[in-house]
Amino acid sequence: MSELKYLSGFGSEFSSEDPRRPNALPVGQNNPQICPYGLYAEQLSGTAFTAPRHDNKRSWLYRIRPSVIHKPFKRFDASKYLTHNWDEQEPDPNQSRWLPFDLPPPESRVDFVAGLHTVCGAGDARSRHGIAIHVYLCNASMDKSAFYSSDGDLLIVPQKGKLRITTEFGIMEVAPNEIAVVQLGMRFAVAVEGPTRGYILEVFDGHFKLPDLGPIGANGLANPRDFLTPVARYHDEEIPGFKIINKYQGALFVAEQNHSPFDVVAWHGNYVPYKYDLNRFMVINAVTFDHCDPSIFTVLTCPSTKPGVAIADFVIFPPRWSVQEHTFRPPYYHRNCMSEFMGLILGSYEAKEGGFLPGGASLHSMMTPHGPDDKCFNSASFGELIPQKIAVGTQAFMFESSLSLAITKWGAETCQKLDAKYYECWQKLPKLFSDKIKI
Ligand SMILES: O=C(O)Cc1cc(O)ccc1O
Ligand SMILES: [Fe+2]
């Protein structure tokens, strides 16, 4: 297969034609009486028609058949651990840590949709307010099926195994240490190459944006040109019994049709799927003293209507130099009015060298105290403060949300990965209080 091509930019107005059908995009209008090549015009709206211009998102798809040619949707029970039921368990404010989530057994055949497991979440897709955090644990490619969420945008964080994501807009390949965003309503199919695991943040409220940079200036953190959107590529295939799987109000539905939904010959617009390589993140940090809040590491944010408060931020902890003088350099001890769900893509996380493992996770709920374990505290308190390259070969991330998250039954019990001894990592923190320590 030839190398995939991408369009570069975040939030841009793009246009793309499959080179096999030049001039497939109508010129100067969206709805010609007959479209070039006899294509159907279909608008995919990502915001209300009347959203302000700077927020307005829509794309026009020129496709062989309109999406409406399908049989009725019926309930589908492909993934029994996908849920929006936040009342399955009693509330639990404890610090939670999960060992790496199990991959499906090699003799099984589990695709991306069947492998979706909801770990925690809050809110309601019906009132378009909330989030769900899922993991996907799969080992087989989707076959004659496509998936979309009618509930929210999906920010996909591969941890193990590359994803080849065929979308209506074209194909993107996303490997660990890259992320992909497939927005509300966009249909996609995932092909994998073996045991595959990753995390998904689904936001019900709106769309992800790049954070404002304030005094940082016009450049830095995640730069817009590093976001890549696939190019148009169509399949003209009759496929009897092709399944369109729809996540709608937290439940799965399936509708059959007799053709590939990946039949878009050309498209234009600013409502698109995209990917981003986390290695491209330009880190800004303190070069004098003290520990900055982790908001400096925000890759993408889904804002709420309250100024400065995110429904959810996607934050990473990339390799970087640590140079602060007379400073306790690791994360400070804290209690936060936001919920912090963390995962590990590669390596280890500086505040917890042991126990927090790639493919595992942690949740520090609203106002639940947390911070470095005793080992980290001791070495950072008494180590020499030379410039140090930290987190080399590692990548931890955080989904930080202003919502108070509930853990599902699968997350709390069925997965059997909760580490009941997690609290112990703080119990041996020493009492240093003494008249002898004077600074
Ligand atoms: O809890 C965590 O490990 C995440 C985190 C990192 C940091 O550098 C500062 C605050 C914070 O919540
Ligand atoms: Fe934290």
Automatic annotation (TrEMBL):
Binding site for homogentisate: 349, 370
GO molecular function terms listed in the Swiss-Prot or TrEMBL record: homogentisate 1,2-dioxygenase activity; metal ion binding
Enzyme class: oxidoreductase
SUPFAM superfamilies linked: RmlC-like cupins (SSF51182)
The protein's Enzyme Commission number: 1.13.11.5
Any Gene Ontology CC annotation: cytoplasm
Keywords: Dioxygenase, Iron, Metal-binding, Oxidoreductase
Superkingdom, natural source: Eukaryota
GO biological process: L-phenylalanine catabolic process; L-tyrosine catabolic process
Cofactor(s) of this protein: Fe cation
Domain Homogentisate 1,2-dioxygenase N-terminal: start-end pairs: 5-278
Pathway linked to the protein: Amino-acid degradation; L-phenylalanine degradation; acetoacetate and fumarate from L-phenylalanine: step 4/6
Homogentisate 1,2-dioxygenase C-terminal domain boundaries: 280-431
Binding site for Fe cation: 334, 340, 370
Region listing for Disordered, in residue ranges: 1-26
Family: Belongs to the homogentisate dioxygenase family.
Protein name (record): Homogentisate 1,2-dioxygenase
Biological source species: Galleria mellonella (Greater wax moth)
Lineage, opening ranks: Eukaryota, Metazoa, Ecdysozoa, Arthropoda, Hexapoda
